[in-house]
Amino acid sequence: MKPDYKNWMPKGMVLSAAGITALFLILSAVFGLTDAAGGMKTVLFIVCLIASVVGLCVSVWMVCMYRAFSYNGSRQMSRQIIEGIAEYVRMPDGGKGLDVGCGSGALTIACAKRNPHASVIGIDRWGKEYASFNKPLCENNAGAEGVRNVTFCRGDAVRLEFPDGSFDAVMSNYVYHNIPGDRQAYLLETLRVLKKGGTFAIHDIFSKTKYGDMQAFVKKLKDMGYESVELIDTTDGMFMTGKESAWMALSGSALLVGRK
Known about the structure:
single chain; Rossmann fold; 9 helices; 7 strands; 44% helix
């Protein structure tokens, strides 16, 4: 049995985009080939043709994203990112870690494998946007990897149902940018449940449009007494190249790491 970590670009979204594109292509052909005269037919033909071109571009982009993220493909960017984040996660024997927005369980399991004498909890809301990601999938992946020091449960990154200082490490990958609102506040909510002396490794698209001034946030954490805080650019070859981050709409990706 092999783990199935799915794809960050869901196949259903790719197929839906391709289907919609095909529909507009058919409609543009119908309006273009019919003998009916009139301005409305011309307008509909042009609209459908433009929609077809846009849909084709989006579909091609999605296919390229799907191939890049595939765990079984040649690029395997997802695997590289997950393993790269896990390298920063350290927990003492008997310690506990929290993966916020665990998805298919990949990061939870990777961190658990690197810290076999600690336990890791993966939480997610498993929304309809990623319908193929769910708790049974995470548990099956853990079983396939032979990892037993993990548990998975439903949770909300905005309001974590854990007391302050519950974990020796917290980690996350590409989660908070998907949630509207004050994303720096979401980071603080995750760090709230971290013990003093605990480590954190959070990877996301930390662009100014999504997060505001992250350098000021790093300074804020240091002023709060955090032992170390660093924002590492992951688009300079660490996880991806600058060109890849641009066409994949991942510009601003960085790793927020440190110790509380």
